[in-house]
Amino acid sequence: MTIIANNPLLVGTLVTPLIGAVIALIFAKSNRLQRSLAVLTGLVAWVLSIALLVQVHDSGIQTYALGNWSPPYGILLVADSLGALFAFMVTTIMIGGLLYTFHSHDKCMTYPAFVPLFLLMEVGLIGAMFTGDLFTLFVFMELMVLASVSLTAISDDQYGLEAALKYILISSMGTLFLLLGIAAMYATFGTLNMAQIAQILLTGDRPFLAPASALMLLCAFLLKSAVFPFHFWQPDFHTTAPTPISAMLSSIVVKVGVYGILRLVTLLFVEDAPVLEPWLSVLGIIGILFGSLGALRTYNAKRMLAYSTFAQIGFILVGIGWGGTMALIGAIVYAFNHAFIKSSLLMLIGVVASYTKIKTANFVDISGIGRRLPSVVGWLVLLGGLSLAGVPPFNGFISKLALIQGGVESGDWGNLIMMVGAGILTLIYMIRAWQRIFQQNPLPGTAETKSEGDSFFAPMLMIFVCLLLGTILAEPLIQLVSATVEQIQDPTLYIAAVYPDG
Predict the structure, then answer these.
(1) CB-count burial class (<10 Å; 0-12, 13-18, 19+) for 431
(2) Which of 116, 161, 112 minimizes the C-alpha distance to 143?
(3) pLDDT in tens, 311-368
(4) Does residue 88 contact residue 49 with C-beta atoms inside 8 Å?
(5) Which DSSP helix (H) or strand (E) runs through 257?
């Protein structure tokens, strides 16, 4: 294992979108140039994230100490297999969102602040995956939240500001949990460096405030992932956001909470994991059932996909709750694949809504509208829905198969049966929505359409990636995630990378 001290790929992946945001502000008067710079920035960050992912799996965990301050002092960036994989996922999905803005007709995307805020959201996401201490994690998460809230507030939707205010208030609760957990950690351990905290806990020393810290951090991460009972802000927020933003919110922003939970049970509180994991499974099953039933009953296509996110995060939580090797592989594969499926579907529904003169995704307004749109849009929505439901040969099938294998390995047959049954509900609401929009004839109340709408190039690209991940890339993905799980199940590897001299 060759650990490169102060690996430039780490800081390069993080800083690239930040530099892009600054340059975009300089060229605020040229929106077209801003969008071009954003895509270029996203591509550079994506290439760097690929190089870092390859290096992590070839040479081991990589670090970068800002200002050359040795840990636990200063800010330390750490890229292990989990962080590098999630950062690659973020940079890839962000390219899709940035490409969508190129041919979008939303007025909000012409605002000078839109592109810089979009890139700052990417900075927050990547930073959260790479940070080696809890306080910097808080900083990056708040940067992500503030950027996404601002982007939703300037949405063309009349309820965008209301949804943004609702989320910032609810997010304050998550911030409170996070800060209380961080404060308790510092009071208990005298450090916020995750490797040092893990090292102390692995020695068997159980400070009095450690369980309380774990609970508060868990609540913060559950709220960020919109897990029941912290879910109620999500449908409004994700539905009213501009299309590329809602695609990012439902696909990768919610994964920050998942990432935090994985860190809790595999690095920081390994001995407490058997206590936390059954609760994660229970919350996951509740989320699966509640999200699926909510998606069946809602009135808006984007809102349906927002409720669906409850269910999909529930599947991931059940996998984490089972805790075995195969279950963790299934949970991480599910989190990775879901990002591609959900972002493509939300962008496709955005394309449908963009063809209406009132720009709406309400089922009563878009029933039968598919007959007036390019036929390829309907086929792409169908393929995305089948992937979300776990139908082969798409990546959704690989995700559910890996989770089912994890459930069989754990022997939790009750939760496994409920999970499989809820998967059938996913197929029902996705096929029903597709038939209502693209198969039936337009109704008298169907909205009037325009001759031109947003481009479907970006979601088509994502659907193509979903097909690849379910076929020729399925085995490499499973192998990559298997190596990731093998690494995170041994927290001493992370500790040794941060403290190579012991």
Answers:
(1) middle
(2) 116
(3) 889 899 999 988 888 999 999 999 999 999 999 999 999 999 888 888 888 888 888 8
(4) yes
(5) helix 255-263
For residues 203 and 342, what is the distance between their CA atoms, to the nearest angstrom? 42
Contact assessment for residue 402 and residue 330, using Cβ atoms and an 8 Å cutoff: yes
Do the Cβ atoms of 12 and 65 come closer than 8 Å? no
> pTM for this structure?
0.92
Cβ 242 vs Cβ 109: under 8 Å: yes
pLDDT surpassing 60 at residue 502: no
Under a CB-based contact definition with an 8 Å cutoff, are residues 174 and 223 in contact? yes
Residues belonging to the chain = 502
* Joined tokens for residue 128: 């959260």
pLDDT in tens, 219-270: 888 888 878 777 776 777 778 888 899 899 888 988 999 999 999 989 888 8
Degrees, nearest 5: CA angle 228-231-237: 165
- Residues linked to residue 77 through DSSP beta bridges, in sequence order: 64, 131
Three-state SS sequence of 486-498? HHHCCHHHHHHHH
- 190 three-class SS: coil
Cα separation, 163 vs 153, whole angstroms: 7
**pLDDT value, residue 2:** 45
pLDDT of 286-303, one tens digit each?
Answer: 888 888 888 888 888 888
Residue 293's CB: how many other CB atoms inside 10 A? Answer: 16
How many Å apart are CA 104 and CA 456, to the nearest integer? 10
Domain positions in the chain are: 275-471
